[in-house]
Amino acid sequence: MTDPTQQLPAATLVTADAHRRRLRWAQGVLLLFHVTGFVGLAFSQDPSFYLQFVPLNLLLTVGLLLAFQPRRTPAFWSFCVVTMLVGFFVEVAGVRTGLLFGQYTYGATLGLKWLNVPLMIGVNWLMLTYSAGILARYLPIPDFLRAVVAALLLVGLDVCLEPVAVRFDFWRWQYDVIPLLNFKGWFAVSLILQVYFNRVDFIKRNPLVPFVYLLQLLFFFGLSMLL
Hints:
Blueprint (H helix, E strand, L loop, with lengths): L9 H34 L4 H4 L2 H14 L6 H24 L6 E3 L6 E2 L2 E2 L1 H17 L6 H25 L3 E3 L6 H20 L9 H18 L1
Antiparallel strand pairs: 1-4, 2-3
């Protein structure tokens, strides 16, 4: 029997091999950053050194995700911009009114703020919305059900994230109590953004996404268990 890969053009095989190497490098870099941060935050006597790299880690993760997005069309970039803006201004409304997520204020860890909200929050909403949306595409179900599944994935990640965020001054809740409204608000906003994600016409496939979501989940779940 002839090896079917031998029937492929040599250029195709080289390109596929190069793509796999790029993916492994990206996964290795992200794993290094997250393991270093995990060890530093969990066991260091002075976690402030590691906290200063949180915005950089977020930008690195989003940058690598975007690098593996096939055919970054104007529609894709418009999705990115709209998602970041919606995510940011939803948080502005949340901080000012307390009606969406409960009463909370942002700390210093996420970096530079505008309107009392870190600019990185918009980037974070993009990373989470994009990742959950891509993961939900693996399911052979209608788009609205995919949006619901993706929103639930985000709420599940937030459950693991909240204890870590409070401990390391990402944000602070009134009376140090995480309200149920927070998770309801996360689900509602996530669902709206997922419906939008499904409606925008771009290739919804990214080989780095499953690794990023699992890495984030394990990172925050592991830290929350140790705090």
